[in-house]
Design a protein that fits this description.
It is built from 8 helices and 9 strands. Strands 6-5-7-8-9 form a 5-stranded parallel β-sheet, sandwiched between helices. Strands 2-1-4-3 form a 4-stranded antiparallel β-sheet. The radius of gyration is 23 Å and the shape is elongated.
Length: about 260
């Protein structure tokens, strides 16, 4: 996976806590330091990581480089990491004024998600695909709450909706195209595809409602891998969504079969 230690630090304090927990987990997984840490307290009671339980010079040096190079001397406080469930107390290692903690499995689970969350636009024809598109949106929001998912039901009254849709597509990097038998009839869908291609978005077609891509499929998408709902059933919709989540880099409990490829 990409090295998270080379990514910029978020400005939002909550996002900073998540980012730091991922950094620590990545360092453990790559042998930079151990999964246990001591915390020094200042007069005001706030705490910061001071020592890895590994006492070798390399481990401590790696942690100090993380502090100075990426975090500019400003690690998130240990209390915040504990509140989010990334730290648990280690009483066996506790010494006066230096509480000890272990990274939790929740911190390591952060390594199973994309380093940079996708920014997603869901494109679909309302007359045919509203239910499936809404299901995809709901599952994405559960699996990837940090991702920016836009679907047209987020439009507000009084908006110039076509301009808003174009703007949302152009500022996102992933374009999920829900495609059925009548999708080709929508002039708006054709515009959305064009905007996504102009923006160099990653386009992921998802075929459903018995559509196989044999007729009226956009020629400009002919070389792009698709995901297909083989027959209409709750099980096959679930399988297609699992394939989509895996394609986006999010782990699932199942190992879905390979996505159907475009002919």
């Amino acid at each position: 996976m990409d090295n998270p230690l080379e990514q910029p630090v978020p400005e939002d304090p909550i996002a900073r806590a998540h980012e730091f927990a991922r950094d620590l987990a990545w360092g453990v997984a790559n042998g930079k330091w151990s999964a246990g840490f001591r915390v020094s307290r200042n007069i005001g009671g706030t705490g910061w990581l001071s020592l890895s339980f590994r006492t070798d010079i390399d481990a401590q040096g790696n942690l100090e480089r993380l502090r100075e190079s990426k975090w500019k001397g400003d690690f998130p406080e240990s209390d915040l990491l504990q509140s989010f469930g990334y730290f648990e107390p280690n009483l066996e290692r506790y010494v006066k004024n230096q509480p000890a903690f272990l990274l939790t499995p929740k911190a390591f689970a952060l390594l199973e998600k994309p380093l940079v969350p996708p920014r997603i636009f869901i494109s679909y024809r309302q007359a045919e695909s509203s239910a499936f598109a809404s299901l995809i949106e709901a599952r994405l929001n559960i699996a990837a709450p940090e991702a920016g998912v836009f679907i047209d039901k987020l439009l507000e009254g009084g908006e110039e909706w076509e301009r808003r849709i174009e703007r949302e597509i152009r500022k996102r990097d992933t374009f999920i195209l829900v495609y059925g038998k009548t999708t080709h009839e929508s002039t708006m869908i054709r515009k959305e595809i064009a905007w996504a291609r102009e923006s160099d978005s990653r386009i992921i077609p998802v075929l459903h409602n018995g559509y196989t891509g044999e007729e009226n499929y956009p020629e400009e998408l002919s070389g792009i891998q698709w995901i297909a709902v083989e027959t209409e059933s709750a099980e096959n919709y679930e399988l297609a969504i699992l394939k989509l989540l895996n394609t986006l880099g999010y782990p699932t409990l199942q190992s879905p079969r390979a996505a159907t490829s475009a002919s």
